[in-house]
Amino acid sequence: MNQAELAGLTQAQIDSYWMPYTGNREFKADPRIVTAAKGKYLTDAQGRQILDSLSGLWTCGAGHSRPEIAEAVYKQLNTLDYAPGFQFGHPLAFQLAERMTQLAPEGLNRVCFTNSGSEAVDTATKIARAYWRQCGHASKTRIIGRLKGYHGASWGGISFGGIPANRKLWGQAMESDMLGHTWRPEMAFSKGMPKTGSELANELSDLINLHDASNIAAVIVEPFSGSAGVIVPPEGYLQRLRQICTANNILLIFDEVITGLGRSGARWGADAFGVKPDLLCFAKQVTNGAVPLGGVLLPHSIYDAFMEKGGAPHSVELPHGFTYSGHPVACAAAMATLDILDQEQLIARVASMAPEFETRIHSLKGCKHITDIRNFGFAGGMTLEPKDGDPTRRPYEVALECWKRGVYVRWGGDTLQLGLPFTIETDEIDRIISTIADSIESLYGH
Ligand code: PXG
Ligand code: PLP
User: What pTM was estimated for this model as a whole?
Assistant: First the structure.
């Protein structure tokens, strides 16, 4: 029996679901079904315990199925399941808003809530464009992204996102342009931040020369790129981007959907890299993945610009929002998650164990077919050699072999990616690393 049958699923059920970002034909030929999860382990339909090396999809750093979150969600569902978020409010949304601004990099003291990272990115870039219009600079519309950047699956995210496979079916929906990515062959096997390459940020000056700052609203980057396989910026690169944005009146947006709330060994990538953005997008870890929630942090100066131009007091200053913006159940999950991160000092734990992770992931250097290894905080990526001319084949084969051996490893493009649970122990890191090495050896020999 395959895992779908073991889970009691019919073929019609399997056929009905068009799965997201999945090779549906390959998956449905031999389904991988997760039926439960606790702590750092997933349970599959065969009842196997599988070590989760990506914390879900970079979401569940505090471990799966946390009772504190379940209780908060249950209580909230029984108290206030939903409240209209337009024109009415409920207490938790305001309480979470203040808490997020207290946790934010200094000066980011207003917040919008969304339901996902994609919506956070759309919200941040819509605010950036509208802000310039409010300030009398309506031509500042273009958004500058970066090659290999991932900013979600919405029209915005695919327009200024830099992962080719996510764009080619749709073409360009929004005016945008791209910085080059920050990886160079000489950076291969860098531990943490590459030492050289800060001058790559000067490409922004070239794009400003091309389009003129009067036509550019914002630059959006991930502090380190996650989905592209953990590409860490060179020392000084983000500082230089910041300088160029400031000098040219261009807003800098950090997309911290992966880097935020602990993954980078600090609360934010902005803190870890010592660079403050104008707007900051978050999602994923804020609710430990239990309930969808995202958002955008920004300074009151941007908020105030809309209030000043808002017209009659009852009119809407920003015609934007989602039915579920600030959903009470999601807010309850976020509050419980922030309590856990705080009480268990999980972010400090990531910071203190990151050097161990660095040593261990780099011990794979020399392993056949691994052409690069990168790491920052509790995020790691490695690039594998193409197979028969196909760069995506080997990561898929290796990750499936790891799954068979009881470790869930994420594959994407020509990379494998690790996003360790914040609660991981050293022997579990060892197990992940040795499973990858053994999988490569069993598939392709020494
Ligand atoms: N921005 C960034 C930086 C992200 O990583 C999004 C936006 C979109 O968020 P939503 O919630 O709309 O999916 C993301 C999401 C992976 C992987 O394995 C990464 C994401 C999602 C799924 C898998 O790299 N990132
Ligand atoms: N489509 C229709 C017909 C709607 O009425 C709405 C919301 O009211 C939406 C889309 C947007 O949904 P959401 O607010 O959940 O993003």
Answer: 0.97
